[in-house]
Amino acid sequence: MVQINPSILSADFARLAEEARRVGGPEGADWLHVDVMDNHFVPNLTLGVPVVESLRKATDTPLDCHLMIEDPDRWAPQYVEAGAGSVTFHAEAAAAPVRLAREIRAKGARASMALKPATPIEPYEDLLPELDMLLVMTVEPGFGGQAFLDVMLPKIRRTRQLIDKHGLQLWLQVDGGVSASTIERCAEAGADVFVAGSAVYGADDPAAAVRALRAQAREAADGAADTCAH
Question: Which residues are marked as active site?
Answer without folding.
Answer: 35, 175
